Amino acid sequence: MSLTYKGVEQAPVPAQPAPAPVLHLRDSSGVPYYLKAYYWWAYVHPRAVRIFERQWLVNLILWGNYARLRDAALGELGESLPGRTLQVACVYGDLTCRLSARAAAGRGIVDVVDVLPVQLDNLRRKLPADAPVRLLRMDATHLAAPDARYDRALVFFLLHEQPSHDRERTLHEVMRVVRPGGTIVIIDYALPRWWHPLRYLWRPLLAALEPFALDLWRREVADLLADAPTIRHLRKKSFFGGLYQKVVATRAGGGAA
Ligand SMILES: C[S@@+](CC[C@H](N)C(=O)[O-])C[C@H]1O[C@@H](n2cnc3c(N)ncnc32)[C@H](O)[C@@H]1O
Question: In this predicted structure, what is the pLDDT of residue 2?
Fold first, then answer.
């Protein structure tokens, strides 16, 4: 149908494609669109939680590296964890149970934050009744905690799930809430070495299932932290031919390194 305006025929306006969802936005209950769009099958749907809450399955997805990566993270934090420990996002398997045992040994407390109630409920069922753990519904990109609240923080395989805007906000928040001199441990994907078969075989699968994961292949997590004035010391260790990495950062301002 054509329209006429002041005697001049106007070309019909072509239909506009619907705007792509802005992935850093949240729905009315605060759930990020990237979780609903790409991770409903892994974390959001209650059936997904029942399926994936099997350590052998997570271990399989991590090519047999779950225990190694879990222990690498716990090893950085310490055997006994006094004070306040933050775990950013729930994790399938026994990582949090082990973390809370270390906090109990140091008479400390663990706060686990996650944006999905279904994940927090699942974690509650895994923990012993007397575990010194608080489960807090919170978005990692806007932590409702004062600056320097925590002695240490753990971010286990969260960053690869997030679009870059959310990833950067999460890192910013973690650096903010860890006290000067405190430790931040990050475990996540990284670019495998050139000779690693998974560098070529895993890429299309990651691209299809976890579309933001390849960001971590293109840009090092350590690089995201390197320029932060709040970071004093940074080190990285690779695992499994580089497919996984551990980044350990120390917050600046807590005395000499
Ligand atoms: C830590 S990651 C994946 C961990 C790993 N694949 C595993 O379970 O072994 C998954 C969790 O991150 C949570 N999550 C994702 N984005 C979040 C955000 N912005 N704030 C808080 N939690 C978030 C999800 O709800 C989910 O529970």
Answer: 44
Share of the chain above pLDDT 90, in %: 82
Q: Is the CB of 151 under 6 A from ligand 1?
A: no
The structure tokens listed for 81 are: 């964890």
Nearest CA to ligand 1 atom 2: 158
Q: Is the CB of 188 under 6 A from ligand 1?
A: no
Contact 226, 181 (CB under 8 A): no
Q: Which of 39-48, 102-111, 125-134, 149-158 has the lowest mean pLDDT?
A: 39-48
Among left, alpha and beta (phi > 0; psi -120 to 50; other), residue 93 is: left
For position 15, what pLDDT does the model report? Answer: 55
**66 C-beta closer than 6 A to ligand 1:** no
The answer on pLDDT for 4 being more than 50 is no
Separation in Å, CA 13 to CA 1, 2, 87, 201, 205: 10, 9, 51, 44, 39
Separation between Cα atoms, residue 238 and residue 43, nearest integer Å: 26
Q: Is the CB of 32 under 6 A from ligand 1?
A: yes
Angle at 32 between CA 28 and CA 37, to 5 degrees: 105
Distance between CA atoms of residues 46 and 69, nearest Å: 26
CA of 246 to the centre of ligand 1 (A): 17
